Amino acid sequence: MKRVVVTGMAGITSLGSDWASIEANFSANKSGIRRMHEWDRFAELNTRLAGPIDDFVVPKSWNRKQLRSMGRVSRLVVMAAEKALANAGLLDDESIRDGRMGVACGSSTGSTEEIKAFGNMLLNSVADGLNANSYIRMMPHTTAANISIFFGLKGRLIPTSSACTSGSQGIGYAYEAIKFGRLPMMLAGGAEELCPTEAMVFDALYATSLKNDAPHTSPRPYDSGRDGLVIGEGAGMLVLEELEHAKARGATIYAEIVGFGCNADGQHATKPEQVTMRGAMELALQDANLDPHAIGYVNGHGTATEQGDIAETHATASLFGSGMAISSQKSYLGHTLGACGALESWFSIEMLNSDRYIHTLNLDNIDPQCAELDYLRGEPRQMNNEFVMNNNFAFGGVNTSLIFRRWR
């Protein structure tokens, strides 16, 4: 088995596109959530909250030919991938283009402007706005395909469009591809563009926050005063590399991936299951050959929905005990869906390396229905850990768990 390390990391969020800016905003208790006045035209949509990226601009170096197949979600993820490759010192390295680098990436859906155009065709029998690239921008694997095409990557392409586990499955499957010797390098992660249809998905389940006049007070993971989740957008990408390959080229190593667990509830499309959540964590521990006490911090999924928070915390406490430190960055950015697993993995590695762990925003009163855990709140905490875990759970009953080891 090969050892897999992280040699590049990058992301784009509503609070910045570099760790220094994002961490400063986290530490200052700054939220990326705002009221979406643009959504006032949707009378039956109850929530007006989201975490949009308002300052995203396509680089001037990208040409029209490159852009024509990319909707917003692909533009976000290609930019994150470009930054990650630059961070790894591989952006201008021809070795990534000879089949030695692949892509594992996903989003909940493709770009919805194109979905709207196809829907208009079905409803009104007209093809306004449709062209040869419409499907490419809409298709579920648009993120992975566009990364591969943009950078000329000819290794295996693994689409991971699994809603809220798209990013973490991308990292997990890329890790396995390298671990089993299929190729030495992978670009892995996920992305999501903001769309009111995604808010409506959760609105219809009565699972969105309605604190429309106080956007910075929501979402509130694990808090007794929470009233639902908030949708966000973003993109996160990691460069994964076989250890000896990374050493041979003198790469900076940020962390080692030592465990990945993934399973399915097999019961209900939207109701989280504590037993299988715990099972995914156990699989990751088995893969890493670790006991539960080795993990020093869990980056929780923390959606701020009642069912999700309660099931997740009880699954975590049943495995690790009440002393496990846990927090959720969704409290700052909202639920970035296909991006969250990648962004939260990036944040986990940064926190692991800095010994400074970000607290959950808006966690004033821990919900007594949640399990007893060491919830980080109020301010960041100094901790020294060798291993941290990042967990994500998705509609369809998909559960993922990743374990990162500090590189010393």
UniProtKB/TrEMBL annotation:
Biological process (GO), any one: fatty acid biosynthetic process
InterPro entries, per the entry: Beta-ketoacyl_synthase, Ketoacyl_synth_AS, Ketoacyl_synth_C, Ketoacyl_synth_N, PKS_Beta-ketoAc_synthase_dom, Thiolase-like
The protein's annotated pathway: Lipid metabolism; fatty acid biosynthesis
Keyword annotations: Transferase
Domain Ketosynthase family 3 (KS3) residue range list: 1-406
GO MF terms held by the record: 3-oxoacyl-[acyl-carrier-protein] synthase activity
Family annotation (SMART domains): PKS_KS
Entry's Gene Ontology cellular component terms: cytosol
Pfam assignment, any one: Ketoacyl-synt_C
Similarity comment: family membership: Belongs to the thiolase-like superfamily. Beta-ketoacyl-ACP synthases family.
Protein name: Beta-ketoacyl-ACP synthase II
Lineage summary: Bacteria, Pseudomonadati, Pseudomonadota, Gammaproteobacteria, Pseudomonadales
